[in-house]
Predict the structure.
Amino acid sequence: MPEPLAVTRWGQPECPPLVLLHGFLGSADDWQPVASQLGQHFHCHAIDLPGHGQSRDIQLGPPPAFDEVVQRLLARLSALPAFHLLGYSLGGRIALHLAQQLDQQAPQRLLSLTLESAHPGLTEAEQKQQRLTADQQWHDRLQQLPLHKFLEQWYRQGVFADLAPARRQAMIQARRGNDPQALSALYLGTSLGHQQDLRTLASTRPLTLLTGERDSKFTALGQAWAAQYPTLNHRVITGAGHNIHATAPQAFAQALLQR
Ligand SMILES: C=C(O[C@H]1C=C[C@H](C(=O)CCC(=O)O)[C@@H](C(=O)O)[C@@H]1O)C(=O)O
């Protein structure tokens, strides 16, 4: 019996369950800025993904790993008849794969799907290969550099351009407890280069995408996705960047509750 994924629970047990999936380098602790507000409306179940947080020792097989992560999540959530699902960035990409599986197996179990700054998938084989190459290069830096130097480079990527120096340093400090070896399998196994193009989910179920006004890349992705699938509920959060729940927690919680 494989070790279960770690889960942190809070909020009102009598309220509807909300499952939360953090992003790369994160953990259940990442939801702290919005925990109080979400806990008033949901029974929150924040998962630590493989290699992260209290699931640090949970490892995955060779890439691609989306199916394996989805099976681990289904095993961890088997006691929940139905739940709302929220995923941030890498966690949102995993949430898309989980939603696809649930929609095929037991669609009634997924009460709603909300993505925060998550890519729906690449469409061309060449794009996927280029992404796999880029992610391998980031992986190699993660293994070779001191972690704080990796994090300095990581949080200077374009999607994090909104971060003021103090906020960037706080992000870096919050991530310094990670184990680069432990992070490796999830990062490579759930690379965007391995992800399916799951845009069509926006036409088969209610799907909300939140992007930050100051994250031009993912806001543009959301606008293009909504143009192709007008049923996508794309909300742009004013003043926020890629990590909306950290930089605009009030607006994030309000958008989630209004979805
Ligand atoms: C830089 C890009 O993509 C990466 C950025 C965000 C994702 C993530 O999980 C970040 C979590 C955080 O540090 O707050 C990550 C992912 O989805 O795997 C991406 O690799 C980009 O330009 O697409």
Q: What stands out?
A: The radius of gyration is 17 Å. Residues 7-121+196-258 form a domain with the Rossmann fold fold (CATH 3.40.50.1820).
